[in-house]
Amino acid sequence: MVRVLRNIEIYVSYFEKYFIFILLSVMILLSLGSIILRNAGVSIPSWVSSFTQYLVFWVAFIGASLASGKNRHVNINLISDVLNEYPNLLRIISIITNFVVVLLSFILCVGSYLFIKSEYMWGIDIPSMGLPCWIFESVIVYTFFMISFKYFVRFLEILTRSVLFEEKN
Q1: Where are the domains of the chain?
Q2: Which of 151, 154, 63 shows the shortest CA–CA distance to 108?
Q3: Mean pLDDT, residues 55-84
Q4: Are strands 131-132 and 125-126 parallel, antiparallel or unpaired?
C-alpha cells in the first residue's frame, strides 16, 4: 500500500515539475512580450498583468507542493543533526512531525476549499480578465491537499519502517 502511494506521489511530482515549467514559460513569454510591446509604443491588453500575477501565484503554490515532496518544505535540520545518534528517538519525532503536518495541511485544505466555495458562491470576478477569482485561487486547495498527501505517505513509510527516518536529499 505504501509503495502504491509513493508511486502516485512520484507521478504527481513529475506532473508538477512539467506544469511549473509550462507556467514559467508562459509567464516569461507574456512578460517579455509586454516589455517589447511597451517599448514599441503599443498598448498591451489589461489582462496580461493580472494573468502574470496569477501565474506567479500558481508557481509559488505548486512549488511549495513540489518542495514538500522532496522533504524540503517543513524541516528543522538542527534537531535531526543532533539526534542522529538516537535513531529511535528521531523516528518517533519524525512520526509526530509528519502527523502534525498532515493534520494541519488537511485543515488548511478544508479551510481553503470553504474559501474557494464562498468565492464561487459570491461570484467575484477579476475585472481585467472577466473570469471568476475561484478558478485562479483553486490552486490553494490543490497545494494543501498534496502537501497533506505527501506527508501522509512519508508518515506511513516511517511508521511501517519502510524508511528509518526522514531522508536527507
Answers
A1: 2-159
A2: 151
A3: 78
A4: antiparallel
